[in-house]
Amino acid sequence: MNIITIIGILASICTAISLVPQLIKLLKEKKAQNISLLMLAVLFAGVGLWIYYGILKKDFIIIVSNSFSLLVNAMLAGLTIKYKTKE
Fold it and tell me: Which tens digit of pLDDT belongs to each residue from 32-49?
């Protein structure tokens, strides 16, 4: 494994886990008033395009990391909608 691949893997991991702290905070506090659904929608579209790009390039790292990001983003969006309706 060369240095370029390692950098790509590390970048993918950082990007993939970037919303996990926000998700944990939302689960603990059950308050979503400061989370932008528009931001999540744009991020969802971007991650979806990255997955498609990864499929076209046949790049497993891009596909897996962005699929995880998509899952976290979807969970965050779902919980945001759930908790915003309760407020």
Answer: 888 999 999 999 999 999
